[in-house]
């Protein structure tokens, strides 16, 4: 994408590949914004799981079933999710995972998953580690030659810019749902550059109309 090519964002991934990679994944790890689809879906699934739990007999040594939608070559074939809700959410999210984008403005550590805002990052070909995880890995690694060749990169925040324009308040941007409703009603989209430009111009038009009365 153009934003990644211009260095505005660091990484673009989908939510499924980002958060359904390990067995201990939890719904509390998922990013949440007002009006998100997965939140309403989770509430429905919780009710269904509660009903199933009441009607089903308690079984010992119950093993979590693997999602049927995963292909045989998928790296997560062997993942047995500890959280039933995470399993059910994954079954619904996976078929449309490309619609759930995760855009990172800062690099994140491949081990602790935390965003790295400053300090030293250790970059490998496809992943990076924060300084803490890298030092821990090096101290526990028996054979240094087995460690991938990480390159240290000093990360510094860009200077904050000041906006000389006055803040313009608008009901369009009061909530995420309000802006989503505007886009849905007028068929505004951001999936292509030309559509994003068109949507931005018309959004500014609506903003100007509301501001001027």
Summed over residues and divided by their number, the pLDDT gives a mean of 80
- Rg, please? 22 Å
Helix content: 25-40%
Q: What characteristic shape results from the CA principal axes?
A: flat
Could you explain how this protein is built, in words?
The chain is of the alpha+beta class and 213 residues long. The chain has three domains: 2-56 and 80-104, no CATH class; 118-156, no CATH class; 176-211, no CATH class. 37% of the residues lie in helices and 10% in strands. The protein is built from seven helices and five strands. It has helices spanning 2-5, 15-19, 37-55, 84-93, 131-140, 176-186, 193-211, and strands at 11-14, 101-104, 119-123, 128-130, 151-155. The strands form two sheets. Strands 4-3-5 form a three-stranded antiparallel β-sheet. The chain has a two-stranded antiparallel sheet with strand order 1-2. A hairpin with a 4-residue loop joins strand 3 (119-123) and strand 4 (128-130). Helix 3 (37-55) crosses helix 4 (84-93). The longest helix is centred in the first third of the chain and has 19 residues, at 37-55. It is flat, with a radius of gyration of 22 Å. The model is unreliable at 69-75 (pLDDT under 50). Keywords: Chromatin regulator, Nucleus, Transcription, Transcription regulation, Transferase. InterPro entries: CBP_P300_HAT, Histone_AcTrfase_Rtt109/CBP. Residues 56-71 have a biased composition (Basic residues). Residues 52-73 are annotated as: Disordered. This is histone acetyltransferase.
């Amino acid at each position: 994408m153009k934003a990644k090519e211009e260095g505005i964002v660091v990484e673009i991934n989908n939510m499924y590949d980002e958060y359904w990679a390990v067995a201990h994944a939890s719904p509390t790890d998922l990013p949440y914004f007002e009006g998100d689809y997965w939140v309403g879906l989770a509430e429905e699934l919780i009710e269904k799981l509660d009903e199933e739990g009441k009607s089903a007999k308690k079984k010992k040594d119950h093993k979590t079933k693997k999602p049927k939608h995963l292909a045989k070559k998928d790296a997560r074939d062997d993942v047995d999710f500890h959280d039933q809700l995470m399993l059910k959410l994954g079954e619904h999210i996976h078929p449309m995972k490309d619609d759930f984008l995760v855009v990172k403005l800062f690099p994140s550590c491949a081990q602790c998953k935390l965003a790295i805002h400053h300090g030293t990052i250790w970059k490998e070909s496809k992943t990076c580690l924060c300084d803490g995880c890298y030092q821990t890995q090096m101290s526990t690694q028996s054979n240094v030659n087995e460690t991938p060749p990480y390159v240290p990169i000093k990360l510094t925040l860009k200077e904050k810019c000041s906006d000389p324009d006055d803040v313009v308040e608008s009901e369009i941007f009061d909530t995420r749902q309000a802006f989503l409703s505007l886009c849905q009603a007028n068929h505004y989209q951001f999936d292509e550059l030309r559509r994003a430009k068109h949507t931005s111009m018309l959004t500014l038009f609506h903003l100007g109309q509301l501001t001027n009365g």
